[in-house]
């Protein structure tokens, strides 16, 4: 039995039946994107959400405020779709950075447009940024994203570093027959440019339902490939916490490389995440098949306390894990770009 004080405190957190507490909020600002990564969406794009369905900037800030001041959220990450396509992004970051207690604020982006916005985002209060880049070869970039924007991403990364949004992390998905030979080159380049590279196992979250486990480049394969050129020493496991990436020191450090083995070594037991979609649905897991409609409550005039209660209820029912290994696994209806990756 806890003390009444501890009980009171427990009422103000997003806890689930397994005792996990969500303190990391990922907010999708839009489902739209200016790339078409093959592992994420089809060439023709998707049926985008209509503007009235999207939370307004004010609604987003209110939701973040409730999460931070009433529900114990400490980290806020803006993602999408492509969050830099959201016109009000700088203002949203600025208003979230003014909250008390101030959350740590980060952004996951494809980097296009970062050259123009990195300094303004830093001034608004953005703490750090993760940029997705799968290849150093412009022609492979074009094949993987169906757009000729490699140069813009490289420029965006440099701008993020120059703006001091450290550490700048780079997310890479390896696809068989496309860029799976590039892991060591990418790591050499990242170390030389002071970016922290992480490889991500491909997950079944693409709109086309094209994922096949047998095709996926596994964490083991990636590490094997890196070890042909680098010495990797595991970082103390105590530093991983709830972070999805397992990290290795490169050639004795200080440079590091991470691998996010979402499929072969899932990290669900330590999961600390809650998600808000661009249309105001709370999801308790990336792979959840249910969502809780908080936009409806928001727009029908519900007070903060009622919204906080709905959020807590949504998180309470979080499943133990992604269910990826269950024979009955079904991909969520929304793809990664609409959930907020
Ligand atoms: N299974 C699972 N994978 C996730 C989750 N969140 C992020 N990922 C994967 O991890 C990748 C990297 O996510 P990022 O948005 O860059 O951030 P992060 O790794 O969560 O955060 P930091 O290391 O704190 O910067 C995503 O592209 C996803 O593939 C999650 O909640 N569950
Ligand atoms: C959905 S995107 C959203 C933010 C931004 N557009 C970007 O690409 O960084 C977030 C991350 O999800 C990753 N991602 C997308 N589809 C994925 C999949 N099927 N499996 C694993 N990671 C995926 C991307 O590589 C990216 O790092
Ligand atoms: S991974 Fe990011 S950049 Fe690529 S299509 Fe999906 S949302 Fe766009
Ligand atoms: S799959 Fe779900 S439970 Fe597992 S780490 Fe991701 S969000 Fe958390």
From TrEMBL:
This is GTP 3',8-cyclase. GO terms for molecular function: 4 iron, 4 sulfur cluster binding; cyclic pyranopterin monophosphate synthase activity; GTP 3',8'-cyclase activity; GTP binding; metal ion binding; S-adenosyl-L-methionine binding. SMART domains: Elp3. Its cofactor is [4Fe-4S] cluster. Catalyzes the cyclization of GTP to (8S)-3',8-cyclo-7,8-dihydroguanosine 5'-triphosphate. Residues 17-235 form the Radical SAM core domain. Pathway: Cofactor biosynthesis; molybdopterin biosynthesis. Pfam families: Mob_synth_C, Radical_SAM. Its EC number is 4.1.99.22. [4Fe-4S] cluster 1 binds at residues 33, 37, 40. The gene is moaA. Belongs to the radical SAM superfamily. MoaA family. InterPro entries: Aldolase_TIM (IPR013785), Elp3/MiaA/NifB-like_rSAM (IPR006638), MoaA (IPR013483), MoaA-like (IPR040064), MoaA_NifB_PqqE_Fe-S-bd_CS (IPR000385), MoaA_twitch (IPR010505), MoCo_biosynth_MoaA/MoaC (IPR050105), rSAM (IPR007197). It catalyses: GTP + AH2 + S-adenosyl-L-methionine = (8S)-3',8-cyclo-7,8-dihydroguanosine 5'-triphosphate + 5'-deoxyadenosine + L-methionine + A + H(+). Monomer and homodimer. S-adenosyl-L-methionine binds at residues 39, 81, 132, 203. NCBIfam families: moaA (TIGR02666). GTP binds at residues 26, 77, 108, 169, 273-275.
């Amino acid at each position: 039995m806890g003390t009444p004080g501890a009980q009171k405190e427990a009422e103000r957190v997003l806890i689930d039946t397994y005792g996990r507490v969500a303190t990391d909020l990922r907010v999708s600002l839009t489902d739209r994107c200016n790339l078409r990564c093959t592992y994420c969406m089809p060439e023709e794009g998707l049926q985008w959400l209509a503007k009235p369905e999207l939370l307004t900037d004010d609604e987003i800030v209110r939701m973040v405020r409730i999460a931070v001041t009433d529900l114990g959220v400490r980290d806020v990450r803006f993602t999408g779709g492509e969050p830099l396509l959201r016109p009000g992004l700088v203002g949203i970051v600025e208003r979230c950075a003014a909250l008390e207690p101030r959350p740590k604020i980060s952004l996951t982006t494809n980097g296009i447009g970062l050259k123009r916005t990195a300094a303004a985002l830093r001034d608004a209060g953005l703490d750090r940024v993760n940029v997705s880049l799968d290849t150093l070869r412009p022609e492979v970039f074009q094949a993987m994203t169906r757009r000729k924007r490699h140069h813009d991403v490289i420029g965006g990364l440099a701008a993020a570093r120059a703006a001091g949004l450290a550490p700048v992390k780079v997310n890479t998905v390896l696809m068989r027959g496309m860029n799976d030979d590039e892991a060591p080159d990418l790591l050499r380049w990242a170390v030389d440019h002071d970016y922290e590279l992480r490889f991500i196992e491909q997950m079944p979250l693409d709109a086309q339902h094209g994922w096949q486990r047998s095709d996926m480049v596994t964490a083991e394969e990636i590490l094997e490939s890196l070890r042909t050129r680098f010495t990797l020493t595991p970082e103390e496991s105590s530093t991983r916490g709830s972070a999805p990436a397992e990290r290795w020191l490169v050639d004795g450090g200080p440079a590091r490389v991470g691998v996010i083995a979402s499929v072969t070594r899932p990290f669900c037991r330590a999961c600390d995440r809650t998600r808000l979609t661009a249309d105001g649905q709370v999801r308790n897991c990336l792979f959840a098949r249910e969502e809780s409609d908080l936009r409806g409550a928001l727009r029908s005039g519900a007070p903060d306390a009622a919204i906080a209660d709905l959020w807590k209820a949504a998180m309470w029912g979080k499943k133990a894990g992604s269910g990826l290994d269950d024979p009955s696994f079904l991909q969520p209806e929304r793809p990664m770009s609409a959930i907020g990756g």
